[in-house]
């Protein structure tokens, strides 16, 4: 069983070939290919975590779609002062499918 832990948009994700990952927006068109930086590689019983060896590892992924996350509502309120503030946010996301670990 081969899997890798990759750095994907400020977080780390455990991926195998065929895994679909939703991460922060990446500048790539739909159907394009990107490379993800490996942090750890497990190839059967062999575990690779040192930087020189991981520099040779390539994890490729295909961009499935660019989307936006759910809306979150930020509300601030201070009692007895008349202060109320309401703000919303939707994160830009990219969904990718891992196509190869070499």
UniProtKB/TrEMBL annotation:
| Gene Ontology annotations of biological process type | translation
Q: Which residues form a coiled coil?
A: none
Q: Does the entry feature the keyword Ribosomal protein, yes or no?
A: yes
User: Entry's InterPro entries?
Assistant: bL21-like, bL21-like_sf, Ribosomal_bL21, Ribosomal_bL21_CS
Pfam families per record: Ribosomal_L21p
Keywords in alphabetical order, please: Ribonucleoprotein, Ribosomal protein, RNA-binding, rRNA-binding
Lineage, top-rank taxon, reads Bacteria
Q: Which GO terms describe its cellular component?
A: cytoplasm; ribonucleoprotein complex; ribosome
State one molecular function term (GO). structural constituent of ribosome
User: What NCBIfam families does this protein map onto?
Assistant: L21
The record describes the protein's role as: This protein binds to 23S rRNA in the presence of protein L20.
The record's family statement is: Belongs to the bacterial ribosomal protein bL21 family.
Report quaternary structure and partners: Part of the 50S ribosomal subunit. Contacts protein L20.
Name the UniProt record assigns to this protein: Large ribosomal subunit protein bL21
């Amino acid at each position: 069983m081969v899997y890798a832990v990759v750095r994907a948009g400020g977080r780390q994700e455990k991926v195998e070939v065929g895994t679909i990952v939703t991460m922060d927006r990446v500048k790539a068109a739909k159907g394009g290919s990107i490379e993800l930086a490996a942090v750890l590689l497990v190839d059967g019983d062999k575990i690779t975590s040192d930087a020189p060896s991981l520099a040779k590892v390539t994890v490729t992924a295909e961009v499935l779609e660019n989307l936006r996350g759910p809306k979150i509502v930020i509300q601030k309120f201070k009692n007895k002062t008349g202060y109320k503030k309401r703000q919303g946010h939707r994160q830009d996301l990219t969904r990718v499918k891992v196509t190869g670990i070499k």
